[in-house]
Amino acid sequence: MQLFFSLNSPYARKARIIIHELDLEPRVKEVAVTLPADAKLRAARGLLSAEAAAAWGTAVAGAAFTPEHRARMRSAITWAATTAASVVDTAYHAGGGSAIYAASPLQRRFRDVNALTQHFLVKADTLTTAGAVLAGTEVDLTVF
């Protein structure tokens, strides 16, 4: 049996106390999930905020967006969307069986974030195109 938990959760703390009091430690594998997920989400949010600020500065200055600007923005957006989906997936799996019901907020967020990852602007090969642009390679930027 596995217990997915957050170190900050009072519910997980209670569950861990009960596991200890019932001497179930040998049968329960504890898996801390939210700290790495939280760090990933904060890193993605930070990158996205930095790129948005840079884009705003470019727009306010009236300057044109270069392919390099667009590559940095698109790669940040793609990485943030992928990271958000990974974080929600972690929370969804930690939610256990109750996460599958329509009434569960985790189920709704799981569907929403996975729908977002299907959008053509955040598809995986966006990172390949962005990398090629940043490396100075000639690429077709029609939809980029």
| Top CATH class of the largest domain | Mainly Alpha
Q: Assign the structural class, choosing from mainly alpha, mainly beta, alpha/beta, alpha+beta, or little secondary structure.
A: mainly alpha
What's the CATH H-level homologous superfamily of the largest domain? Butyryl-CoA Dehydrogenase, subunit A, domain 3
Shape: elongated
What share of residues is helical? 55-70%
Any idea what the CATH architecture of the largest domain is?
Up-down Bundle
Q: Please give the radius of gyration in angstroms.
A: 20 Å
Report on this structure.
Helix content is 62%, strand content 6%. It has 144 residues and is mainly alpha-helical. It has two domains: 1-32, no CATH class; 34-134, Butyryl-CoA Dehydrogenase, subunit A, domain 3 (Up-down Bundle), CATH 1.20.140. Strands 1-2 form a two-stranded parallel ribbon. Strand 1, helix 1 (10-21) and strand 2 (29-32) form a beta-alpha-beta unit. Helix 2 runs antiparallel to helix 3 and helix 3 (67-94) runs antiparallel to helix 5. The radius of gyration is 20 Å and the shape is elongated. The chain starts with a strand and ends in a 10-residue tail after the last helix. The mean pLDDT is 89.
Write a brief structural summary.
The protein is mainly α and 144 residues long. Helices cover 62% and strands 6% of the residues.
